[in-house]
């Protein structure tokens, strides 16, 4: 198949999922065309069957805010016509599904008059935050209803979308995935671990875009409690608006030397593969991709019992869950686990077993291929 993929190319879950899906599809022989204003963050140089098409947004004095959605729709239609795409797959409803809808209409009314179906994948904040804004709710609902196929990354997100937006479409749940061959425990972690924990301290890690919903200060609060009991280091992977707040909190608590801000990383599996525990105390997660990536690397996740996270982590077996804001309980889970090496390693292996059995790319990508075929057949 020839598939056009559009996502936000920034450091966030939807962009990561879309890029990794495209790379996996390309490896399986499909022709993948990424269409966005910048190369996706995890698109690593030229690769077979991978193409990138930049969306150029012209700036005119008339526009305070250049109309990216219109430029995107035009580029989608151009690429679809030039490369004879079979379908578009857009990640994040606003504005991508609206642009895909316009592109489909342009293709239908064009000289060839052909059908260009599009699939919309809902990731979370496009529904739980952006889509609920009264300014966007009607167009979000309409773009979902007009999609030729709709997927959601968890049962939680599917149910919430159908309830809040009152859409009647069938929404297929296809979980996020992880490449279990790439994301795995570092078999020889010594040198890299010593770089961050020279005195053999325990390593905790957090991975996100540092937005308020991720509750980065809770990560620091949890780590502060853990560090008082067990010598530890905290690796913070990512960047975003709450970084400075977290930095100041670490300084105020006198632990700044043990909180390492690593910034955005392309090869996050290298850092995850040496860690012991992953902290994800988010206000809301529709899935929890960071937790899954950690699990594949035998890193035990400690997360909040919110949104779709319980569909990924089984409390007490593949990780631990606590209420939002309950930093005391999350710290206690971490302290107990880090104090018992056998239990830590056993739970890490259990976490990877879950990732392998339910969320590996080899199991998830064929679900998308089958869904594409149903869309092309008109039976989705």
Features:
43% helix; elongated; 13 strands; alpha/beta; 2 domains; 380 residues; seven-stranded parallel sheet; 16% strand; six-stranded parallel sheet; Rossmann fold; 14 helices; single chain
Task: Give a summary of the structure in a few sentences.
The chain is of the alpha/beta class. The protein is built from 14 helices and 13 strands. It has helices at residues 13-27, 68-83, 96-109, 125-130, 137-146, 155-165, 190-196, 216-229, 243-252, 268-272, 289-296, 327-338, 341-359, 361-377; strands spanning 2-6, 31-36, 50-54, 87-91, 118-122, 149-152, 171-173, 202-207, 232-237, 259-263, 277-280, 300-304, 320-322.
Describe the structure.
The chain is α/β, with parallel strands linked by helices and 380 residues long. The chain has 2 domains: 2-177 and 361-377, Rossmann fold (3-Layer(aba) Sandwich); 190-359, Glycogen Phosphorylase B (Rossmann fold), CATH 3.40.50.2000. Helix content is 43%, strand content 16%. It is built from 14 helices and 13 strands. It has helices at 13-27, 68-83, 96-109, 125-130, 137-146, 155-165, 190-196, 216-229, 243-252, 268-272, 289-296, 327-338, 341-359, 361-377, and strands at 2-6, 31-36, 50-54, 87-91, 118-122, 149-152, 171-173, 202-207, 232-237, 259-263, 277-280, 300-304, 320-322. The strands form 2 sheets. Strands 3-2-1-4-5-6-7 form a 7-stranded parallel β-sheet, sandwiched between helices. Strands 10-9-8-11-12-13 form a 6-stranded parallel β-sheet, with helices on both faces. Strand 11 (277-280), helix 11 (289-296) and strand 12 form a beta-alpha-beta unit. Helix 8 (216-229) runs parallel beside helix 9. It is elongated. The two termini are 17 Å apart.
């Amino acid at each position: 198949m020839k598939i056009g993929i559009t996502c936000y190319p920034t450091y966030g879950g939807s962009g990561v999922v879309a890029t990794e899906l495209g790379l996996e599809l390309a490896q399986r022989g499909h022709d993948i065309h990424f269409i966005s204003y910048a190369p996706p963050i995890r698109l690593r140089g030229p690769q077979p069957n991978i193409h990138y098409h930049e969306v150029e947004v012209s700036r005119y004095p008339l526009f305070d805010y250049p109309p990216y959605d219109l430029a995107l729709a035009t580029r989608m239609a151009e690429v679809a016509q030039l490369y004879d795409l079979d379908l578009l797959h857009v990640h994040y409803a606003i504005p991508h599904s609206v642009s895909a809808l316009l592109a489909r209409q342009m293709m239908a009314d064009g000289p060839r008059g052909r059908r260009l179906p599009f699939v919309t994948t809902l990731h979370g904040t496009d529904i739980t935050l952006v889509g609920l804004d009264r300014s966007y709710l009607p167009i979000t609902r309409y773009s979902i209803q007009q999609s030729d196929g709709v997927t959601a990354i968890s049962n939680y997100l599917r149910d919430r979308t159908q309830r809040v937006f009152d859409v009647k479409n069938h929404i297929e749940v296809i979980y996020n995935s992880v490449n279990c061959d790439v994301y795995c425990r570092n078999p020889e972690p010594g040198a890299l671990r010593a770089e961050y924990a020279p005195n053999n301290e325990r390593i905790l890690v957090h991975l996100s875009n540092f937005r308020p919903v991720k509750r980065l200060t809770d990560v620091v609060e949890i780590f502060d409690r853990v560090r008082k009991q067990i010598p530890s280091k905290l690796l913070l992977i990512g960047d975003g608006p709450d970084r400075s707040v977290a930095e100041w909190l670490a300084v105020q608590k006198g632990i700044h030397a043990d909180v390492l801000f690593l910034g955005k990383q392309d090869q996050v599996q290298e850092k995850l593969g040496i860690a012991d525990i992953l902290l994800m105390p988010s206000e809301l997660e529709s899935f929890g991709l960071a937790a899954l990536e950690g699990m594949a690397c035998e890193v035990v996740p400690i997360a909040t019992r919110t949104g779709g996270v319980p569909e990924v982590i089984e409390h007490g077996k593949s990780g631990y869950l606590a209420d939002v804001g309950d930093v005391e309980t999350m710290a206690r889970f971490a302290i107990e686990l880090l104090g018992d090496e056998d239990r830590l390693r056993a739970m890490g292996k259990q976490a990877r077993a879950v990732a392998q059995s339910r969320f590996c790319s080899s199991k998830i990508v064929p679900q998308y291929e089958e869904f594409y075929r149903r869309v092309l057949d008109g039976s989705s």
